Amino acid sequence: MKIASWNVNSLKVRLPHVLDWLAEAQPDLLGIQETKTLDENFPQQEIEAAGYQVLFSGQKTYNGVAVLSRLKATPKEIITDIPGLEDHQRRVLGATYGKLRFINLYVPNGSEVGSDKYTYKLDWLDKLASYLKKQLQEHKNLVVVGDFNIAPEDRDVHDPEAWKGSVLVSEPERAALQKLFDLGLHDSFRLFEQDEKLYSWWDYRAAAFRRNMGLRIDHVLCSDALKKKCTASYIDKEPRKLERPSDHAPVVAEFDI
DNA sequence: ATGGTCGTTGGACGA
Question: CA A44, CA A47: separation in Å to the nearest integer?
């Protein structure tokens, strides 16, 4: 089973790239973030025509998440919020497909360390950890994907000195992500030997992609049981090379299930 | 990483 995550930065603009990538990569499950699309405008027909069933939770202008599946199972136990977290921002979409629990997240960016948005991010991650702790007790096979807006380690940052202490890499953010790892959620990417300087996001500015000035902030996390069945994990840079790309690349993990 | 661009929107704001 092939599971992926992609922050598309507007599904309206990126739909052609998404449809091309579905045809090319053929993921079984894809979590999409930053659809920036109201549910009433969601391109459901086009995605279903590509052979995928789809769930979505959107809002105007900002945020918005969707889950695409070509599995036979009907999604159950659908959630669009973290229990106990009052949030009008559409950042969460979870569903159970057969024996697999799948949660797609668009973690808050945090803007700047010390800002209100940063506080919101840390609080959001704290509530998320409580929820995922319970989810792990209820679901042996749990996959949590998304744009986490956190680079776990310095090797996930093109220039750690320049980025030191700033949003996306700050210690409180990394501690919040580490807390998820400590619950027994594994960064699938690090289960395998990887080349150096592999990232999932590059700023649109300053020709950052061409210069590979990126961060690895998009992740596929998996529970213990799935860690044992994970056979590959990688970042597909190809869509980032296209005309009018998202600033993020799809991240992929494969499981022998 | 001085800023540098996108996307949404119709002037900023968020990332």
Answer: 5
